[in-house]
């Protein structure tokens, strides 16, 4: 397990960090996004999707639970489990996501599925600071996520 921190002073900076991070994604990554409402989780997802060339701009998945965005080169699953308990998530299509080795899985409020997904994952905890400032605490669990955490910390400097 590795840990790190990055900082963003604006929505635009969060989008830019996500865009630069998209360049190191190869598919198969699982990223858990935690933090209060309005902390920048969905903004980060929007930045990744845009940089990957996905035409639809992600919105909060709170009401649809899971959205899939794709083009010829990339697939991104955006999950938001804000209102669900662990027992309510079994029929959401996780098998399809996990079988897709080229997909990037971004899960907001991931606790209900944390025991269902593989252990190798990157966790990002968005912490609200003053104004538009955010601190993003990072933890990686596994070899792939370790390398993505290191890349994200370098990108954000």
Number of strands: 7
Q: How would you name the CATH homologous superfamily?
A: P-loop containing nucleotide triphosphate hydrolases
Mean pLDDT: 86
Low-confidence stretches: none
How many domains is the backbone divided into? 1
Number of helices: 4
Characterize the structure shown:
This protein is of the alpha/beta class and 157 residues long. The chain has a single domain, classed as P-loop containing nucleotide triphosphate hydrolases (Rossmann fold), CATH 3.40.50.300. The chain contains 4 helices and 7 strands. It has a 7-stranded mixed sheet, with helices on one face. Helix 1 packs across helix 2. The two termini are 21 Å apart. 37% of the residues are buried.
Give the topology, please:
Blueprint: E1 2-8, H1 11-22, E2 30-34, H2 41-51, E3 66-70, E4 75-80, H3 94-99, E5 103-108, E6 121-128, E7 134-141, H4 143-156
Parallel strand pairs: 2-5, 2-6, 4-5
Antiparallel strand pairs: 1-7, 3-4, 6-7
Helix pairs in contact: 1-2
Structural features:
alpha/beta, 157 residues, 4 helices, seven-stranded mixed β-sheet, globular
Provide a concise account of the structure shown:
With 157 residues, the protein is α/β, with parallel strands linked by helices.
């Amino acid at each position: 397990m590795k840990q790190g921190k990055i900082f963003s002073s604006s929505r635009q900076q969060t989008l830019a960090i996500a865009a630069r991070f998209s360049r190191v994604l190869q598919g198969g990554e699982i990223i858990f996004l935690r933090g209060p409402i309005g902390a920048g989780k969905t903004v980060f997802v929007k930045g990744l999707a845009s940089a990957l060339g996905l035409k639809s701009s992600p919105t909060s998945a709170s009401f649809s639970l899971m959205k899939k965005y794709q083009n010829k080169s990339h697939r991104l699953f955006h999950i938001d489990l804000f209102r669900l308990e662990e027992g309510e998530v079994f029929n959401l299509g996780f098998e399809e996501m996990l079988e897709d080795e080229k997909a990037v899985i971004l899960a907001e409020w991931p606790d209900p599925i944390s025991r269902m997904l593989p252990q190798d994952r990157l966790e990002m905890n968005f912490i609200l600071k003053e104004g538009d400032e955010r601190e993003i605490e990072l933890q990686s669990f596994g070899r792939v996520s370790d390398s993505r955490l290191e890349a994200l910390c370098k990108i954000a400097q």
